[in-house]
Amino acid sequence: MDVTKFEKPKVAVSFAQQVKERSDKLMNYFLICFFICGLVLAPFYDTWLIAFGVGGLNLFAYYFTKIAMPDSNLYQYVLSLVLGVFMAQGIYQMHGLFEMHFAAFIASTILITYQNWKLQIPLVLFVLIHHAGLAYLQNSGVKGVYFSQLDTIELSAFIIHIVLAGLIFFTCGLWAYLLKKYSKIQIEQTREVGRLERESQIHKERILNEEALKVAYQKAEQARHEADEANKAKSVFLATMSHEIRTPMNGVIGMASLLNETQLTPEQREYAKTITTCGESLLTVINDILDFSKIESGNMELEQRDFDLRTCIEDVLDVFAGRAGKLGLDLVYEIDYNVPAQIIGDSLRLRQILVNLVSNAIKFTEQGEIFVGVHLNDVKRDGQIELQFEIRDTGIGIPADKIERLFKAFSQVDSSTSRKYGGTGLGLIICEKLIGLMGGHIDVKSIENEGTTFTFTMQSSASSQSLRTYVTNHIAGMEGKQVLVVDDNLTNRCILKNQLEMWKLVPTLASSGAEALEIMNKGMQLDLLLTDMQMPDMDGCQLAQHVQKLYPELPIILLSSVGDERNKEYEGLFKSVLTKPIKQEMLCKLIINELRGRSKPLTDMMPAKQKLSSDFAKEHPLKILVAEDNLVNQKLALKILSKLGFEAALAENGNVAVEMSNRELYDIILMDVQMPEIDGLEATRIIRQGMEIQPTIIAMTANAMKEDRDQCLKAGMDDFLSKPVKLEELVNMLAKWSIIGKDRNMSGKRA
Questions:
Q1: Chain mean pLDDT for the chain
Q2: If 0-12 CB within 10 Å is exposed, 13-18 middle and 19+ buried, where does residue 34 land?
Q3: pTM for this entry
Q4: Which of 250, 257, 416, 517 could form a disulfide with 724 if both were Cys (CB 3.0 to 4.6 A apart)?
């Protein structure tokens, strides 16, 4: 880019402004001098009135024009006329003294300072008109003209005078023109010299920069090499940490899954489910931390699958139900009626975002509530929808000057070593990156000591799959039933009111036990009572006791927090007990159950829907070898296979697995990767090279990154399962390769 193109007008304007300011300052002195000269001449012929009147009007005309139009050069032309008037004033005051005509020449000369030859024009015209007019009047015999001390002026003398004056004015105008011209030339030369100096300096700097660039390039290459080594070390560390964390997690989630296969009470099943949900949530967080570098580099890919939005949110809230109950916090959610029940997106990533935001809300809230809301922002022509999620708490809030730290990696609002709240500082930045990948953005509003609200959006679309119908199922015939809702939390009351009205029930709201009793004493016919447990003055149990005495037939459903066992002291007081956060499906079933007057409550023991069946081995007769060095994982794998009807063999390391596979033919080998003596990859290579009849080898490893999967398949393994292993995935994997094996055998027989 040519800098001089921009500098040229700037330099010219700057120089012209300097000329103008300098000349204006000079004119102030000259005008004062002309005015004073008029006063000096006044005593000669007693022309004080002319000196003050004409001189004052001259000054007024000049300064008024200059002040009234500061951005115009008109005042300079007024100045030219004013100087001509001062000349005429002097001639008149001295009764035509010849020497006073030189005032015009002085005026013409000082106008040169403006470097504008056009300023000579008003002065020349005025002098010409003044001389011609007054000379004519004087020659005509008019008295008191005082143009010349002679009675008459000869024409030749007048012409000579005019010609000489014209030469002087022309010379001054030419002088002003040439002065401006050569000033421009000087500016151009100065600018050109400056440009050459800059180019010379740039050339010197370019030479220095090229040398510095060579040094910088060498340093950059060295830094890149060191960074590559550091990234490799980080990858190895992350892979090791992933393995070390996933190994015990496999035991936690696996044993919890086995526990779910046994006969459990609803309460026990809820606890076991929460263990599984917590483990899976922790696993999701681990995955996100391991993929943090991928998120930053833009290599993270999101899944697009159908999932139930309400189930996703309820599963997230289930993780924190026990913790919220211990703290006395209300954990509530509401999904607007126009939000699709099933959407397409990455449910695991959405859960990870919600887990992080709800966890933060609980961490920084000591009393009150945590609210999760979902709203439909926009529906586009192509079927895409924009959802807005709101996570609101009543916690300590965030200072305004600390909000900017929230979305910086490894940064926290309170980063001191004595901080009250822990955390890595990675959660929110991961959330922000994931939300960006979902086509949305995240915002936060907070007031200290009042609470914080996080809102984020995501792009999705409604699912075309069939939806669950638990909300409207069997609701027919119960429209208009009267339900009294008692809860001290306004948000809870509003959410329950909206849900009941959606089911065409008629809710009545009360904020305390006393208000509820007052409503009932007015004679209102009620069909059902929903009451919270934790309320001031009168809790749910105390209210239920009063109600039972007055209305023994009225069914009562208690809304209680996880871990609150006070209701067990009053056996038979409540028809049903529903733990918070309230699930819409369960609430609907309980209400239907009570309004229809069923004798058997919904909370009785229900048989578990088993995922493991001993008949599986009969349908898929497989000979299985488990290669695993970890004792817990050995026990878990053998127990799962046992429940499926298999008597699996065990190899404690890769070396033993190779020896056992050489001695006996196995249909499937479940191969761990990291094992002593010989790891799973090397063991697979040996088996693939040394056996004629090949078994199916499935990696079952805690190394869960995509690179690990590719490495296993490259080593010769047939499939891949990452730990913690889900029962459904293992069962489906065994069934898949059993069918493939049968097809291979049938093809071999036909051949």
A1: 80
A2: buried
A3: 0.50
A4: 250
